[in-house]
Design a protein that fits this description.
By secondary structure, the protein is an alpha/beta fold. The chain contains 15 helices and 12 strands.
Length: about 325
Protein backbone atom coordinates (compact mmCIF):
# COMPACT_ATOMS: atom_id res chain seq x y z
CA UNK A 1 0.00 0.00 0.00
CA UNK A 2 1.40 3.38 -0.97
CA UNK A 3 1.86 6.22 1.46
CA UNK A 4 -0.74 8.28 -0.41
CA UNK A 5 -3.23 5.41 -0.19
CA UNK A 6 -2.57 5.00 3.56
CA UNK A 7 -3.03 8.71 4.07
CA UNK A 8 -6.29 8.65 2.11
CA UNK A 9 -7.69 5.78 4.20
CA UNK A 10 -6.52 7.42 7.40
CA UNK A 11 -8.31 10.60 6.38
CA UNK A 12 -11.48 8.62 5.66
CA UNK A 13 -11.25 6.95 9.06
CA UNK A 14 -10.78 10.31 10.71
CA UNK A 15 -13.87 11.64 8.98
CA UNK A 16 -15.82 8.58 10.06
CA UNK A 17 -14.67 9.00 13.62
CA UNK A 18 -15.45 12.72 13.56
CA UNK A 19 -19.12 12.23 12.73
CA UNK A 20 -20.07 10.30 15.86
CA UNK A 21 -18.04 12.76 17.90
CA UNK A 22 -20.04 15.65 16.45
CA UNK A 23 -23.30 13.82 17.06
CA UNK A 24 -22.26 13.13 20.62
CA UNK A 25 -21.79 16.83 21.26
CA UNK A 26 -25.28 17.74 19.98
CA UNK A 27 -27.23 19.56 22.66
CA UNK A 28 -30.38 17.73 23.77
CA UNK A 29 -33.60 19.74 23.76
CA UNK A 30 -36.97 18.32 24.78
CA UNK A 31 -39.97 19.74 22.89
CA UNK A 32 -43.59 19.15 23.93
CA UNK A 33 -46.51 19.46 21.51
CA UNK A 34 -49.83 17.98 20.50
CA UNK A 35 -49.72 14.94 18.22
CA UNK A 36 -51.60 16.77 15.46
CA UNK A 37 -51.01 18.56 12.19
CA UNK A 38 -50.69 21.96 13.87
CA UNK A 39 -46.89 21.81 14.53
CA UNK A 40 -46.18 20.84 10.89
CA UNK A 41 -43.33 23.39 10.48
CA UNK A 42 -41.50 21.62 13.30
CA UNK A 43 -41.86 18.27 11.54
CA UNK A 44 -40.37 19.89 8.44
CA UNK A 45 -37.47 21.40 10.40
CA UNK A 46 -36.72 18.02 11.94
CA UNK A 47 -37.00 16.13 8.65
CA UNK A 48 -34.71 18.52 6.82
CA UNK A 49 -32.09 18.48 9.53
CA UNK A 50 -32.41 22.12 10.49
CA UNK A 51 -32.17 21.37 14.21
CA UNK A 52 -29.21 19.03 13.66
CA UNK A 53 -27.50 21.72 11.57
CA UNK A 54 -27.70 23.97 14.63
CA UNK A 55 -26.04 21.32 16.78
CA UNK A 56 -29.29 20.33 18.51
CA UNK A 57 -30.78 16.91 19.15
CA UNK A 58 -34.48 17.80 19.44
CA UNK A 59 -36.68 15.09 20.92
CA UNK A 60 -40.43 15.32 20.41
CA UNK A 61 -42.72 14.51 23.34
CA UNK A 62 -46.37 14.26 22.31
CA UNK A 63 -49.41 15.07 24.44
CA UNK A 64 -53.18 14.80 24.03
CA UNK A 65 -54.01 18.18 25.61
CA UNK A 66 -52.45 21.63 25.94
CA UNK A 67 -52.34 22.10 29.70
CA UNK A 68 -49.98 19.17 30.49
CA UNK A 69 -47.42 20.60 28.07
CA UNK A 70 -47.17 23.87 30.00
CA UNK A 71 -47.01 21.94 33.29
CA UNK A 72 -44.19 19.75 31.98
CA UNK A 73 -42.19 22.80 30.86
CA UNK A 74 -42.64 24.35 34.30
CA UNK A 75 -41.50 21.11 35.95
CA UNK A 76 -38.35 20.99 33.81
CA UNK A 77 -39.36 17.77 32.06
CA UNK A 78 -39.50 19.73 28.80
CA UNK A 79 -37.33 22.61 27.61
CA UNK A 80 -39.78 24.14 25.13
CA UNK A 81 -43.47 23.71 24.31
CA UNK A 82 -45.81 24.77 21.54
CA UNK A 83 -49.56 24.72 22.04
CA UNK A 84 -52.64 26.90 22.52
CA UNK A 85 -52.58 29.68 25.09
CA UNK A 86 -55.26 28.90 27.67
CA UNK A 87 -56.34 30.28 31.01
CA UNK A 88 -54.39 27.48 32.65
CA UNK A 89 -51.30 28.41 30.66
CA UNK A 90 -51.48 32.05 31.74
CA UNK A 91 -51.96 31.06 35.38
CA UNK A 92 -48.83 28.92 35.20
CA UNK A 93 -46.99 31.66 33.32
CA UNK A 94 -47.66 34.23 36.04
CA UNK A 95 -46.79 31.86 38.88
CA UNK A 96 -43.90 29.94 37.36
CA UNK A 97 -42.24 32.35 34.93
CA UNK A 98 -43.25 30.84 31.61
CA UNK A 99 -42.31 33.04 28.68
CA UNK A 100 -43.90 33.15 25.21
CA UNK A 101 -41.04 33.42 22.69
CA UNK A 102 -42.57 32.82 19.26
CA UNK A 103 -45.68 32.42 17.19
CA UNK A 104 -47.41 29.25 16.06
CA UNK A 105 -50.74 28.91 14.29
CA UNK A 106 -52.18 32.34 13.59
CA UNK A 107 -55.80 32.79 12.56
CA UNK A 108 -56.21 35.51 9.94
CA UNK A 109 -58.72 36.56 7.32
CA UNK A 110 -59.01 34.08 4.47
CA UNK A 111 -57.34 31.28 6.43
CA UNK A 112 -59.36 28.15 6.95
CA UNK A 113 -57.98 27.19 10.33
CA UNK A 114 -60.71 26.76 12.93
CA UNK A 115 -64.36 26.53 11.92
CA UNK A 116 -67.52 27.21 13.87
CA UNK A 117 -69.86 24.29 13.24
CA UNK A 118 -73.63 24.09 13.69
CA UNK A 119 -75.46 20.81 14.11
CA UNK A 120 -77.75 19.86 11.22
CA UNK A 121 -80.82 20.44 13.40
CA UNK A 122 -79.65 23.82 14.72
CA UNK A 123 -78.64 24.99 11.25
CA UNK A 124 -82.04 24.08 9.85
CA UNK A 125 -83.61 26.07 12.71
CA UNK A 126 -81.63 29.20 11.81
CA UNK A 127 -78.19 28.99 13.44
CA UNK A 128 -76.32 30.20 10.37
CA UNK A 129 -73.76 32.67 11.76
CA UNK A 130 -71.81 33.47 14.96
CA UNK A 131 -74.15 36.40 15.66
CA UNK A 132 -76.98 33.91 16.25
CA UNK A 133 -75.26 31.88 18.99
CA UNK A 134 -77.21 33.47 21.87
CA UNK A 135 -79.54 30.94 23.45
CA UNK A 136 -77.73 27.98 21.92
CA UNK A 137 -75.59 25.21 23.42
CA UNK A 138 -71.92 25.02 22.43
CA UNK A 139 -69.51 22.18 23.15
CA UNK A 140 -66.00 23.15 24.31
CA UNK A 141 -63.24 21.08 25.87
CA UNK A 142 -63.25 22.90 29.20
CA UNK A 143 -63.66 26.29 30.81
CA UNK A 144 -60.57 28.41 30.24
CA UNK A 145 -59.71 26.63 27.00
CA UNK A 146 -58.91 28.30 23.71
CA UNK A 147 -62.46 27.41 22.58
CA UNK A 148 -63.88 29.25 25.60
CA UNK A 149 -61.78 32.26 24.64
CA UNK A 150 -62.92 32.17 20.99
CA UNK A 151 -66.55 31.98 22.07
CA UNK A 152 -66.06 34.90 24.45
CA UNK A 153 -64.46 37.03 21.76
CA UNK A 154 -67.25 36.18 19.29
CA UNK A 155 -69.72 37.40 21.93
CA UNK A 156 -67.85 40.70 22.13
CA UNK A 157 -67.61 41.09 18.36
CA UNK A 158 -71.23 40.17 17.60
CA UNK A 159 -72.75 41.84 20.65
CA UNK A 160 -74.43 38.93 22.39
CA UNK A 161 -74.16 38.03 26.08
CA UNK A 162 -71.78 35.12 26.67
CA UNK A 163 -73.95 34.12 29.63
CA UNK A 164 -76.78 33.47 27.19
CA UNK A 165 -74.78 30.62 25.68
CA UNK A 166 -75.02 27.19 27.27
CA UNK A 167 -71.36 26.11 27.30
CA UNK A 168 -70.92 22.34 27.60
CA UNK A 169 -67.40 21.22 28.63
CA UNK A 170 -66.97 17.74 27.12
CA UNK A 171 -63.20 17.35 27.75
CA UNK A 172 -61.98 16.40 24.26
CA UNK A 173 -62.20 17.53 20.66
CA UNK A 174 -63.50 14.10 19.67
CA UNK A 175 -66.37 14.53 22.12
CA UNK A 176 -67.07 18.01 20.74
CA UNK A 177 -67.41 16.64 17.22
CA UNK A 178 -69.54 13.72 18.37
CA UNK A 179 -71.87 16.03 20.31
CA UNK A 180 -72.55 18.34 17.36
CA UNK A 181 -72.82 15.47 14.89
CA UNK A 182 -75.57 13.81 16.93
CA UNK A 183 -77.47 17.03 17.73
CA UNK A 184 -76.58 16.84 21.44
CA UNK A 185 -75.36 20.44 21.16
CA UNK A 186 -76.15 23.17 18.69
CA UNK A 187 -72.59 24.21 17.86
CA UNK A 188 -68.90 23.58 18.40
CA UNK A 189 -65.45 24.31 16.94
CA UNK A 190 -63.13 22.15 14.84
CA UNK A 191 -59.90 22.42 12.88
CA UNK A 192 -60.28 22.57 9.10
CA UNK A 193 -59.68 18.91 8.28
CA UNK A 194 -62.18 17.74 10.90
CA UNK A 195 -64.71 20.44 10.02
CA UNK A 196 -64.62 19.67 6.30
CA UNK A 197 -64.93 15.93 6.94
CA UNK A 198 -67.96 16.46 9.22
CA UNK A 199 -69.56 18.82 6.72
CA UNK A 200 -69.00 16.46 3.79
CA UNK A 201 -70.61 13.64 5.76
CA UNK A 202 -73.62 15.81 6.64
CA UNK A 203 -72.86 15.67 10.38
CA UNK A 204 -72.44 19.46 10.71
CA UNK A 205 -72.52 22.72 8.79
CA UNK A 206 -69.62 25.20 8.67
CA UNK A 207 -71.09 28.59 9.55
CA UNK A 208 -67.88 30.62 9.94
CA UNK A 209 -64.12 30.46 9.76
CA UNK A 210 -62.74 32.07 12.90
CA UNK A 211 -59.92 33.86 11.11
CA UNK A 212 -62.43 35.84 9.07
CA UNK A 213 -63.84 37.47 12.20
CA UNK A 214 -61.06 37.15 14.79
CA UNK A 215 -57.32 37.49 14.03
CA UNK A 216 -55.89 35.27 16.72
CA UNK A 217 -52.56 33.81 17.88
CA UNK A 218 -53.91 30.31 18.43
CA UNK A 219 -50.71 28.51 19.37
CA UNK A 220 -47.35 29.82 20.50
CA UNK A 221 -43.83 28.70 21.34
CA UNK A 222 -42.86 29.03 24.99
CA UNK A 223 -40.20 28.16 27.53
CA UNK A 224 -39.21 29.17 31.07
CA UNK A 225 -37.28 32.12 32.37
CA UNK A 226 -34.89 29.53 33.80
CA UNK A 227 -34.19 28.17 30.30
CA UNK A 228 -33.75 31.65 28.86
CA UNK A 229 -31.15 32.46 31.51
CA UNK A 230 -29.29 29.14 31.45
CA UNK A 231 -29.39 28.12 27.75
CA UNK A 232 -29.96 31.21 25.61
CA UNK A 233 -27.64 30.01 22.83
CA UNK A 234 -29.54 26.75 22.48
CA UNK A 235 -32.84 28.63 22.32
CA UNK A 236 -31.50 30.94 19.61
CA UNK A 237 -30.33 27.90 17.62
CA UNK A 238 -33.68 26.20 18.09
CA UNK A 239 -35.52 29.30 16.92
CA UNK A 240 -33.24 29.67 13.88
CA UNK A 241 -34.16 26.12 12.79
CA UNK A 242 -37.82 26.69 13.63
CA UNK A 243 -37.85 29.85 11.50
CA UNK A 244 -36.56 27.88 8.49
CA UNK A 245 -39.23 25.23 9.05
CA UNK A 246 -41.98 27.86 9.14
CA UNK A 247 -40.72 29.51 5.96
CA UNK A 248 -40.58 26.14 4.15
CA UNK A 249 -44.11 25.40 5.36
CA UNK A 250 -45.41 28.72 4.04
CA UNK A 251 -43.68 28.13 0.69
CA UNK A 252 -45.15 24.64 0.43
CA UNK A 253 -48.74 25.51 1.32
CA UNK A 254 -49.32 29.25 0.98
CA UNK A 255 -47.35 30.48 -2.03
CA UNK A 256 -49.70 29.17 -4.71
CA UNK A 257 -51.30 25.90 -5.84
CA UNK A 258 -49.74 22.67 -4.52
CA UNK A 259 -46.58 21.87 -6.44
CA UNK A 260 -43.12 20.32 -6.03
CA UNK A 261 -42.46 22.21 -2.79
CA UNK A 262 -45.68 20.76 -1.37
CA UNK A 263 -44.86 17.24 -2.52
CA UNK A 264 -41.44 17.50 -0.89
CA UNK A 265 -42.77 18.24 2.61
CA UNK A 266 -45.81 15.93 2.69
CA UNK A 267 -43.70 12.85 3.64
CA UNK A 268 -41.94 14.82 6.39
CA UNK A 269 -45.32 15.63 7.95
CA UNK A 270 -46.90 12.23 7.25
CA UNK A 271 -44.17 10.62 9.33
CA UNK A 272 -45.93 12.05 12.39
CA UNK A 273 -49.61 12.46 11.41
CA UNK A 274 -51.88 10.39 9.14
CA UNK A 275 -49.05 7.87 8.94
CA UNK A 276 -49.93 5.10 6.50
CA UNK A 277 -53.27 6.69 5.64
CA UNK A 278 -53.88 6.47 1.86
CA UNK A 279 -55.68 9.82 2.11
CA UNK A 280 -52.88 11.50 4.07
CA UNK A 281 -52.04 14.03 1.37
CA UNK A 282 -55.64 15.19 1.02
CA UNK A 283 -56.08 15.44 4.79
CA UNK A 284 -52.89 17.45 5.20
CA UNK A 285 -53.86 19.83 2.38
CA UNK A 286 -57.31 20.26 3.92
CA UNK A 287 -55.96 20.89 7.40
CA UNK A 288 -52.95 23.20 7.11
CA UNK A 289 -53.38 26.59 8.78
CA UNK A 290 -51.36 29.77 8.64
CA UNK A 291 -48.16 30.65 10.47
CA UNK A 292 -46.83 34.19 10.32
CA UNK A 293 -43.58 34.63 8.34
CA UNK A 294 -40.59 33.43 10.29
CA UNK A 295 -42.72 32.26 13.21
CA UNK A 296 -43.38 35.85 14.27
CA UNK A 297 -45.48 36.36 17.39
CA UNK A 298 -48.65 38.46 17.49
CA UNK A 299 -47.75 40.11 20.80
CA UNK A 300 -50.77 42.39 20.79
CA UNK A 301 -53.12 39.44 20.55
CA UNK A 302 -51.31 37.43 23.25
CA UNK A 303 -51.75 40.37 25.62
CA UNK A 304 -55.40 40.68 24.56
CA UNK A 305 -55.94 37.01 25.39
CA UNK A 306 -54.40 37.46 28.82
CA UNK A 307 -56.57 40.53 29.47
CA UNK A 308 -59.71 38.59 28.50
CA UNK A 309 -58.88 35.68 30.80
CA UNK A 310 -58.21 38.16 33.61
CA UNK A 311 -61.56 39.86 33.00
CA UNK A 312 -63.34 36.51 33.24
CA UNK A 313 -61.64 35.71 36.56
CA UNK A 314 -59.89 32.73 34.99
CA UNK A 315 -56.41 34.17 35.63
CA UNK A 316 -55.72 35.51 39.10
CA UNK A 317 -52.13 36.77 39.02
CA UNK A 318 -51.00 40.37 38.86
CA UNK A 319 -47.75 40.03 36.91
CA UNK A 320 -46.90 42.67 34.31
CA UNK A 321 -48.38 41.20 31.10
CA UNK A 322 -45.40 42.30 29.03
CA UNK A 323 -43.09 40.28 31.28
CA UNK A 324 -44.69 37.09 29.93
CA UNK A 325 -43.43 37.76 26.39
CA UNK A 326 -39.81 37.66 25.19
CA UNK A 327 -39.26 38.68 21.56
CA UNK A 328 -35.48 38.38 21.59
CA UNK A 329 -35.57 34.96 19.88
CA UNK A 330 -38.12 35.46 17.10
CA UNK A 331 -39.63 38.58 15.60
CA UNK A 332 -42.94 40.15 16.63
CA UNK A 333 -45.81 41.24 14.40
Amino acid sequence: MTLDRRCFLTALAAIGLARPACAATARKLMLGMLHTLSPAPIYIAQGRGYFADQGLDVEFVFFDAAQPIAAAVVAGDLDVGITALTGGFFNLAEKAALRVIGGGLHEEKGAQGIALLASPKAYAAGLTSPAKLAGHSVAITQYGSSFHYILGRLAQIDGFDLKSVDMRPVQSIQNMLAAVGTDQVDATFAIASQAKTAAAAGRARIIAWIGDVLPYQLTALFTTERMINSRPDDLHKFCNAYRHGVDDYRTAFFSGPPGPATDAVIPLIEKYVYTGDPNARAKILAGVSTYSPGGALDVKDVLAQLAWFHAQGLVKGDADPKSLVDTSFLSAL
